[in-house]
Amino acid sequence: MSKPKKLNRKQELELKATELFKEKGYTASSMRDLATKVGIEAPSLYSHISSKEEILRTICFRIANEFFEAIELVDQKAHNSSYTILESYIVSHIQVIIKNTSASLVFFNEWKHLSEPYLGEFKSKRSEYERRFHRILKKGMENNEFIEMDEKFVVLTILSALNWIPHWYDPKGKWTPEEIGGYISRMLLHGILIK
Amino acid sequence: MSKPKKLNRKQELELKATELFKEKGYTASSMRDLATKVGIEAPSLYSHISSKEEILRTICFRIANEFFEAIELVDQKAHNSSYTILESYIVSHIQVIIKNTSASLVFFNEWKHLSEPYLGEFKSKRSEYERRFHRILKKGMENNEFIEMDEKFVVLTILSALNWIPHWYDPKGKWTPEEIGGYISRMLLHGILIK
DNA sequence: CCTACCGATCGGTAGG
DNA sequence: CCTACCGATCGGTAGG
Questions:
Q1: CB-based contacts of A51: which residues, under 8 Å, 6+ apart?
Q2: Cβ contacts (< 8 Å) between B115 and chain A: which residues?
Q3: Predicted confidence pLDDT, tens digits, chain A (195 residues)
Q4: Do B157 and A161 touch (CB under 8 A)?
Q5: Is 0.85 surpassed by the pTM of this model?
Q6: Cα–Cα dist B164/A142, whole Å
């Protein structure tokens, strides 16, 4: 049993909006839909938020920050191989996704509806994040830990497998985040390790 | 040089709609956007199509059929191992994606905006397709070709890696479809093969 | 947090 | 393929 969290109205709005955007997509979700879900009239939403896009922005950047924080925790620890760093990156990434299954789906699917300058900021954050994976793969290849391959390709393949998790992960299912992390690391990494 | 294809108006509509839906998403794309792209007025679209959703339907089911046809060609050939079947499934799947980079993105991202009964039909087709992968994985595990793993998990991981390809594949880039198929098969399959 | 309401835009039709 | 136009719905504001 997790203890019931006390949410203020703004947090409740974000939570309900996340569910709504996940199910119908951002553009197809109307502020009237959201108001109905929350149990108030549409114009009343605007005493808590300033626009529909603000909600999307909050969701997308909150998740982006969680991904970065997770990876930075990994970097702060000592590691003896590129393999263990990459594995930790993968497990951390999965943990963020699993802690935020709905929000991460919105993050992956709806970010393109952000407007400038937020859209540009979002894209550059994402590139920076991918670059972290890129770097460790390159290092591992130089170390002769990983097979020589195009890193861009490997990064994209790893991240695509990870980023699909919210589509099928069942919080009430039999797998813990750690088990999923273990399975997916084994499957992805053993394919690129020199044996 | 590919020879210029002669498209009729309806095919041109579908092509332009595919580009539009890919860039802005189905819901955020208006019929006026599409009309402008084609160079006519919005109401004129309706002498070629009956509704906005009809276009989405055409795109989604055309791609679904291409995936099925590709996999059935594989089934018709003789194979000596589950490994070679699975590898052929993967390469065929990639070829369909690469032949239809924009349309497959629409297929993956916008199908949820189909209405019933098409939505149900779409979902059941997709399940059937996944079941083909499921079956060959199970067989390969019984054969002791593949490591014993949860097949659902493996299928989803493979397909997620494949289905991300249209996000990054550059038709003018250095990789041929065959090379991508080879790389991705090696990376995904060697992780699940008993050595 | 509500009622009343705005201009803009939506998918689509009528009629030619 | 066009002009003229429809009812519905959109995000959001005014004023309380």
A1: none
A2: none
A3: 444 556 789 999 999 999 999 999 999 999 999 999 999 999 999 999 999 999 999 999 999 999 999 999 999 998 889 999 999 999 999 999 999 999 999 999 999 999 999 999 999 999 999 999 999 999 999 999 998 888 888 999 999 999 999 999 988 888 887 888 888 888 888 876 665
A4: yes
A5: yes
A6: 27
